[in-house]
TrEMBL record:
Protein's UniProt name: Pyrroline-5-carboxylate reductase
InterPro entries in alphabetical order: 6-PGluconate_DH-like_C_sf, NAD(P)-bd_dom_sf, P5C_Rdtase_cat_N, P5CR_dimer, Pyrroline-COOH_reductase
Domain Pyrroline-5-carboxylate reductase dimerisation: 161-265
Domain Pyrroline-5-carboxylate reductase catalytic N-terminal: residue ranges: 2-98
Gene name of this polypeptide: proC
Keyword Nucleus: no
Length: 271
């Protein structure tokens, strides 16, 4: 299988690194390209053993899956670049937030199968939650191949294309929202008088350990929380203080804003 990445930035890097680490494809069969940053491509070649090129005809010839992984606003230039060289065998996988399959198809001027995925940067560590939608002409075998590719860097969740807006908010942008919360926790912790580096290190371990508990325990999160909360104890006191704030409403605002932006991005492209 030959895979090409048009765009080798942060998100693509997380995906192809995950695929290389999974050993599901020989690294030399993964081809990278970008706009002009040759040094970056050479670096990935040296560290991961992947191939790279700026020769679009060579890149697209025999390519089974072509990742469209530029920023959404760079897609039209990318489409102009690759249109003359697309072959009937190329199946596209777009990671670009907000751009509908119909819009991608229209601008590539092809009928080739197109999938849209919404991964997140946890792909770096094999834990992306990736929403996916397929065009109706994606065959069952190819669908399975794509799902297997995605599972190389995490888990896949097939959804209706319209629901990719919600997936974008909850898990695509999700790591950034959680990092923001963790940053606030560190900031608050440093105000308690312990040395900053000690707070940062201990909260990092706290987050990793809590994630592993969620992963490995059979208990649900509410039970894990209750197991820490002694009647009349410190946890109860802290949780009481937290319940004075409507944290759910705060996150609902955050997620609604992200969904709204995703819809706006899609509508802007349809105009
Ligand atoms: N970051 C994230 O957490 C997530 C991002 N996404 C989506 O992933 C996409 C990429 O984001 P991200 O990786 O953060 O972006 P980056 O800015 O890190 O990377 C963009 C890449 O696109 C390349 N590029 C630009 N124009 C062209 C072109 N004409 N031909 C080929 N390559 C081109 C750039 O090349 P060069 O370096 O040479 O300029 C660069 O390699 C976005 O559409 C975003 O919506 C989806 C889910 C999560
Ligand atoms: O911020 C963005 O638009 C992209 C989509 C999800 C994560 N990053």
């Amino acid at each position: 299988m030959k895979i090409v990445f048009y765009g080798s930035g942060n998100m693509a890097n997380a995906i192809f690194t995950g695929i290389v680490n999974s050993k599901s494809i020989e690294p030399e069969n993964i081809f990278l390209t970008n706009k002009s940053n040759l040094e970056k491509l050479e670096g990935y070649h040296d560290t991961l053993g992947v191939s790279y090129s700026y020769d679009d005809e060579e890149l697209l010839k025999d390519a089974d899956y072509v990742f469209l992984s530029t920023k959404p606003y760079d897609f039209l230039k990318l489409a102009e670049r690759i249109k003359p060289y697309i072959t009937k065998d190329n199946k596209f996988i777009s990671i670009m937030a907000g751009l509908p399959i119909s819009y991608i198809r229209e601008n590539l001027q092809v009928k080739n199968p197109i999938a849209r995925i919404m991964p997140n940067t946890n792909a770096h560590v094999g834990h992306s939650v990736t929403g996916i939608s397929f065009s109706t002409n994606f065959g069952p075998n190819s669908k399975q191949e794509v799902l297997t590719l995605i599972e190389a860097f995490g888990t896949a969740l097939e959804v209706k294309e319209d629901h990719l807006h919600q997936v974008t908010a909850i898990t695509g942008s999700g790591p950034a929202f959680l990092y923001h919360v963790f940053e606030q926790y560190v900031n608050a912790g440093t105000k308690l008088g312990i040395e900053q580096s000690q707070v940062e290190e201990s909260i990092k371990e706290l987050i990793i350990g809590t994630g592993k508990m969620i992963e490995r325990s059979d208990l649900k999160m509410d039970q894990l929380r209750k197991n820490i909360t002694s009647k009349g104890g410190t946890t109860q006191a802290g949780l009481n203080a937290l319940s004075n704030h409507d944290i759910e409403a705060v996150f609902l605002d955050c997620l609604n804003a992200a969904v709204k932006r995703s819809v706006e991005l899609a509508e802007a492209e349809e105009d």
